[in-house]
Amino acid sequence: MINRILKIVLASILFIYTIYQFYLGHIANGIGLIFIIGFIILLIFRNEHIILAFWFLRKNQLAKAGKALSRVKHPDQLLKKQEAYYYYLTGLIESQLQGIGKAEKYFKKALSIGLRMNQDKAVAKLNLAAIAMYKRRKREATMLLSEAKKLDKHNMLADQIKQIQQQLKKV
Predict the structure, then answer these.
(1) pLDDT given at position 74
(2) Which CB contacts under 8 angstroms, 24+ apart, belong to 135-138?
(3) Where does the chain have alpha helices with state H?
(4) What is the pLDDT of residue 17?
(5) SS3 per residue for 80-101
(6) How far is Cα 47 from Cα 77, in angstroms, rounded to an integer?
(7) pTM for this structure?
(8) Residues with Cβ < 8 Å from 159, sequence gap 6 or more?
(9) DSSP 78
(10) Three-state DSSP class for 72?
(11) Which of 6, 7, 123, 132 would be a feasible disulfide site paired with 141, CB 3.0-4.6 Å?
């Protein structure tokens, strides 16, 4: 919360200084400061540690992504969508590095808070289905798989869904 207030104060001071630069006729300085203000405002609504974690996950560097997420001290003070993605990313990292015990809790919390994109909801439900299958809860796994299939509009998870369905037949 204090971090967000500092960013707002910094953006306000820079905005006043930008107006002063335009008043003096230093147009290039003013335009450059506008870009800096835009970046600061972006960081007000998007947490930089979550952005870094997404970056490292895209590069498949799970340890660095976990380290970036560990820098978020109070996830409950984030905006609701940021908090949902914090738990979503933590669930993804936990499922890959630590195991499925804690990952289920994080995915459920992310879904209850509300993920923004349907594809992210589908990935979370697919992981929950895999966890339920591993824990021998076949009914819950099939329900979660059908929900993930409905949310996956572009069929990006079709192979993973088929693979889990085949494994469910063996259970």
Answers:
(1) 87
(2) 136/171, 138/168, 138/171
(3) 2-24, 27-45, 48-58, 62-70, 80-97, 101-113, 118-134, 138-151, 158-170
(4) 97
(5) HHHHHHHHHHHHHHHHHHCCCH
(6) 11
(7) 0.81
(8) none
(9) S
(10) coil
(11) 132
pLDDT the model gives residue 119: 93
The closest of 151, 149, 153 to 168, measured between CA atoms, is 149
Residue carrying the six token digits 């609504």: 45
> The tokens of 25 are what?
């006729």
Please give the pLDDT value at position 154: 87
Name the token pair of 84.
């949902």
> Could you report the average pLDDT of every consecutive run of 10 residues in the chain (171 residues)?
84 96 95 94 85 91 91 87 93 84 90 92 92 90 92 88 87 72
Rounded Cα distance between 171 and 169, Å, is 6
Calculate the CA 142 to chain-centre distance. 25
**Cα–Cα distance, 71 to 48 (Å, whole number):** 10
Residue 110 corresponds to which amino acid? A
| C-alpha to C-alpha distance for 86 and 73, rounded to whole angstroms | 11
Tell me the C-alpha distance between 16 and 132, whole Å. Answer: 55
Token look-up 């970036």 returns 68
What is the C-alpha separation between 65 and 62, in angstroms, rounded?
5
- Identify the pLDDT of residue 98: 75
Look at residue 1 in the predicted model and tell me its pLDDT. Answer: 59
pLDDT at 99: 73
